[in-house]
Description:
By secondary structure, this protein is an alpha+beta fold. The chain has two domains: 112 residues, no CATH class; 77 residues, CATH 2.40.50. The chain has two helices and ten strands; from the N terminus they run αβββββαβββββ. The strands form two sheets. The chain has a five-stranded antiparallel beta sheet with strand order 3-2-1-4-5. Strands 8-7-6-9-10 form a five-stranded antiparallel beta sheet, with helices on one face. The longest helix is centred in the middle third of the chain and has 38 residues. The chain is elongated and about 95 Å long. The two termini are 20 Å apart. The model has no long low-confidence stretch (mean pLDDT 88).
Amino acid sequence: MDKGTLKLSLFFIGFGLIFVLVASYLLIDNINVKNNWTETTSHIINIDKEKYRSDGKTKYRYFAIVEYSVDGQSYSGRLNTYSSGMRIGDSVDIYYNPENHADFQDASGNLLLVVMMLIGFAPMGIGFYLIINDVKTNSKVKKLKENGQKVIAVIKTVDVDYSTTVGDGHPCELICEVEQFDSPVPKRYRSQKLYKNMQDVAGKSIVIYIDRENADNYIMDIDSIR
């Protein structure tokens, strides 16, 4: 497998896996809380505003302070979630720890964690797709190497997609030309997308394997660049 593709695939899989594992842990913890803690209704008694700096600008984050009663004793604390629609006096369902009444947790949040898990599955899917696609490409390369026509092409340009950033670089495609005996116009070939720095290969030679029955079916041997 191409090292650049492998590195990118593992980055996507690892990034997504972190999301999935964290969301799964929090979701299991939430379910455990709902099964073992006691549900009650609290009321928002204050909205705290906290100032912080981000990107050189002063910003604010908000926290809802709720109050609830257990056996005639009042408890208060900061909710672990906040939405802009919250107002003083609003009721909020919570779960409190039967062994420590001051310990509580917002009753909502599972949907957000499920969404977080789905977000994690997306980059994991991309990572596995890149691996599967690379395996298929390697299989195609092997078949074309065994049965296809081998030609030497010259890399004319490297088409870099600067609008897309993957990892610490940009995907690119190699534009190559092969001289034709029956035409003064060289035959042009374009590579698959490559996820590594290839900007210094213009002018170098590369081997292309072409299907003898279908000239549009070809593969460039990136490792052959000289």
